[in-house]
Structures are given as structure tokens and as C-alpha cells.
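Q: Structure for this?
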Amino acid sequence: MYIESDKVPVNEVLLNLIKNNTEVLKTSSSECVNLLRDKAQQSFTEQGIPTLKNENYKYTDLSLVFSKKYNFHFVPKKIDFNIRDMFRCDIPELDTHLIILLNGWYYTDNDPLTEYENGILMGSFARAAEKYPRIFEKYYGQCARYQDDGTVALNTALVQDGIFIYVPDGVVLERPVQVVNIVMDNEDCLVNHRNLIIAGKNSRLNVVICDHSLSSNQFLTNSVTEIFADENSVFDYTKVQNEHNGAAQISSTFINQKKNSNVSTNTISLHGGFIRNNIYALLSEPGCENNMYGLYLSDKFQHIDNNTFIDHASHDCTSNQKFKGVLDDMATGAFNGRIVVRKDAQHSKAYQANNNILLTDDAKINTKPQLEIYADDVKCSHGATVGQLDENSMFYLQSRGIGKKEARLMLMTAFANEIIKQINVEPLRERIDELVDKRLHGELSRCNSCAMHCN
Amino acid sequence: MLSIKNLSVSIKGKQILKGINFDVRPGEVHAIMGPNGSGKSTLASVLAGSAAFEVTEGQVLYMGQNLFDMRPEDRARAGIFLGFQYPIEIPGVSMANFMKTALKEVRNYRGLGALSSSDFMKLMREKISLVEIDSKLINRSVNEGFSGGEKKKNEIFQMAMLEPKLSILDETDSGLDIDALRIVANGVTKLKRPDNSFIVITHYQRLLNYIVPDYVHILYDGRIVKSAGKELAYELEEKGYDWIKNSNDDL
């Protein structure tokens, strides 16, 4: 099924894609998912893909990536070899629950939904929706706002599969979940996946998702993840974006936190031609803590845009955002960090910082902190810096015999380290440290066992 | 080892050094004293290779080579060490990684192979006890959270690790209490050898009780106005900087 976008406007093309395939979309999904599909389609008809005129997207031109010819798989692509042999995103000493997504479809030879003894559910979004409609009725679509963003509406209208993780009340998920999200095809592809993660009261879990592209075609992935963190839950979410520069990604993560929950997200953008990350957190009850970290290392013509929104809708919550980026060559980037502290959200603490290093005159970053404070007994701060590597630090290193090139690398590594050290799982932190080090050295950044050579 | 001839240096058009001449031979300790603004730190920075300054006249030969032809990292590799007056903090760069990388470069330049990890750790431990620096500081980022005194001790520690031929200590004693001063001076004295030299820049005579100089030069308004043996330091201490200002402003 092709998306022809030579002369037909993008929105029309996408709507036709949905309309012409309504049958297969609806039959492959359960009722609760389809309920929202029609509303989302209607919303998309009204909104379309956000344009530069949309304040939230003024630094990122989505038409650049949407106006291309893409294939779209309404059924999972047949693979005639074992993908696990070809690619193992292995991290030594790290024992994880490994989940693979291939072009937005949950990939497995076995049961698409694993049900553990302690009640943990892990696997295919589609299968879970089929088997556990009550969970979906309660959570699905409850925090993602398709009404506010055309890309979310598009995702909701095209939804079929993705990942689903459910941790019941009181359960600690001992091993981290590692999601290897692969795009691979012999044609250019539009990929859609929808994910739902539920952390019950007093639960703990750790999810790592690594995005990779295993063929040199162009890809556009539009994904939405909804995360529900119930009372006292602790949830760590690390995303490593490592697709090649012909791949584009629009990734929206919606987080809904209940009383005293603690959610930390860390988005590490190593490679990828065009990345737009939306991370939205709603602190709906008192005592929540939310940390959002991000690191973007870009060069050549990459464009990385991080857009965050933290809504302090209740009192005594704490939020902390720190995004750091290094931009080289002609890379461009944006950071838009919005914090809203509502009128009765007293004793809120909200901190935000965005630090950027530009290595060339052509690199460009637009950084826009936005603080909207309506309560009066709060502590909030925001700061943004754009600069070069510190001259005095460089000289200090040189005065000890360290050459300029090595000194620059040491300082850039030190700069990135502040974000990497936030990763709690030690073997993962070490592996990402290694990847970042390779990235800064200009070496191809990929997990050791990847057989493909993507660039 | 070091031969400075008629060196004049300016920064942003303002002339700081106005024709400096002096020589340092192996095994010697030279003290440079002078009031604030006389150009002491400028001299130290220029020798180390800071790009902030412009050499308007003169030349400096280090071991027979034209120093200004050498990049800062090459001067360090060739054995010049600058103990900074205000050592900078570099968050995220660990002391161990910093020293390991620096030592590798210096050894490489000298035709020596890199040290094995265990030999390196042994060397670190040796120098930590020599300089009496707290070993906890070594696990931290360079100078991050160090007190003034700890930063100065860290300079001496780095000097001990890199074994330079010419150490230029820029007001290493400023901000130190008497005990820290003794420890720093002790470290320097232990590192002194017949084949290395020191240029000790200081404001006060006190340090020179512990690091006994062979020569004392007084720098005033960008010029060396007096040079003598160590007694000059006592004379200066007694008479104060006004003595220098008066005798030179009259000229």
C-alpha cells in the first residue's frame, strides 16, 4: 500500500491511507481501540499534520518528512530468518526481558503476550487489547491528547500494534525490560506504533527502548506511548535513539502520575536524521516526582527537537528537567520546555535547564523555556545556555600535555556525562557511555553485535 | 634551560611586560616577586602558551628551541609545567582520567610507552602520599568542590605525576594557611632535582622560607627592576613594595 505524495497534499494522502484501509485496521484491533480510532480520524481531518504555523512546531518542519513516498504495512512483514540471530542488542551483564518491535509490530515466534505468575503482562499491544479489554477501557487513550496534536491523532487513527507492559500493584519487576525497536524494509516506510505501560501502586519497573534502523531506506516512525504511574510507583524509562540519518522519528510520550509516584525519563539521541520528541507529564496528585533528562549529539544535517510539558496539577510535586546537546556541522535543534504550575499547586518545585554546545558557526539551536506559574508558594527556575567549549578548561588540559582534539573530546564527554550518570542501571549506563564516546569520536555508534552498516 | 630575551607582551593593546630578560639553568630555583599588576601571572601564562596574550617583542628559548613555535600541549610534553594561580574546575572529567591521558602524552613525547593500569595506580598512590593530598579527591572531577588549598595541592600533585623539567608556580602560596603552605613547599622540595628548575612566583616572602631560591627577581610595572640572591626577599619583606615603587618611579 503506497502513499503517493507527489501532487496530492499530505493530509489528504494520509486520510486516504486511513479510509482505504479502515476494514483491515478495524478487523485487526479490538473494540476499545477502534472506539477511539474514529474520533481520532475525525480530529486528524480537522487538524492535519502540524505546520510551522503551529507554535509548538515552529522550529520543526514536519512537511519535510511527511512529503515523501512511503510504504505502510497493514500486516506484519514476513521475515524469513530469525531476527534474533541477525541482531542482538546485547548488553553484557545485563539480564533483561527482551522485546522486539519490527516496523511497529510486536515480533516473536511464540506467544505474543507473556503472562507471568506475579501478574505481570508483557508483549503485544494488539494481543493485550484483545485479551484484557477491561484494562484497555480503563487506560487506553486516557492520557494521550490526540485533540492537541495532529501526529497523535494520526497515530491513534492508524493504531494496530506496539508494546504493552502491565505491572500489578505491589509488584517489583526485577529485570529491566529492553525493547529493541527496529525498522527494516527494502522500501521506504511509514511506521506506526502505539504503546501502553501501566505501573500499579507501589510497583517498580525499568524500561529501556533502543531504536535502530537495519536497512538503509528512509523511514518515518510516528509513535505514541502512554505511561500510567499509580500511587508510590517508581518507573525509569530510557530511550536510546540510534537510527540512521535517513530515518525520521516523531515520538510522543504521555505520562500520568498519581500520588507520590516517581517517574524518570532519559532520552539519548545519538543518531537519526530527524527527531521530534514530545514528552508530556501530568502530575495529577500530590507528592509526585518527575525527572526528564535528555542528551542529543548531532552533526551533519541532523535535526533534533525536544518538546516537553510538565503540568503541576497538584501541590507538593517536584519536577526536574535537564536537556543537554552538542551540535556540530550544520546540525540544528530545538528545545521547548513548558512548565505549568496551576493555581492550587502550592509548594511545587520545578527546575529546568537546557545547555547547548555549538561546535561550528553553522550549527543552530532554538531554545525556549516557558514557565507559567499560577500558584504563589513555589520554587521554580529555568535556564538555557548556548556556547562553546570553555577556553580556560581547554587551556588547562593543554597545559598538561593533552592535545586540542583530545581535550575537546574530554570536555564533550564530561558535558554529556551529567545526563548519562542519571541512568540507574549500571551495565546500561556503561554501555551508553561507550556509545556516546564512540559517537563523539565520530565513530559509527551501534551495539557491538549489529550486523548492518547503517549511516 | 630557559632563556628569556627582551620579552614584551601585551593584552588587548595594553602593554604588560616591557622587555624581560633572565635565564634559568638546570637545578636552579628562581623567585619572582612584585606588587599586584606587575605582570607576574602574565609572564607565567605566556610561558605556558596562553593565547590570550600577544608577544610584541623578544624571544624565549627553552632547551634551545624557540618556545613560541610550540603549541601549549607540546610545551607541556617537553617538560614545562604551570601551577595555576586559579586552578579551574572541570566537572565531569575525573582526576584519574585526566592524569592518565596527560601522562600518556608526556611519556609518548619522551619515547616511553604508556604505563599499565596497575603501574599507573601505583604511581598515583605514591604521589598522593608524597604531596599529602587526600586520596578521596582523586576520585572526583578535576578541582570540583576542592577548597582553595586543595586546588593548590592538586597542582603540586599533578606536577609530581608529570615530572616536568621547568615548573612555573604562579602564586601557589596564595590562599594557603601555614600548614598547607608547609605541605606544598615540602612537595616542591621533594621534587627538586639537579636536572629540573623552578620559577616560583609569589607575593610574599613566607613561601621562600621553605622553597629557598637561588635568585630573586623583582618585577615591577612589567620590568625586572632588581635581581639578587635570596637576601633580596628579606629586604623586600622589610621595606615593602613602596621601596620598589619609589626607587623606580623616580627613574
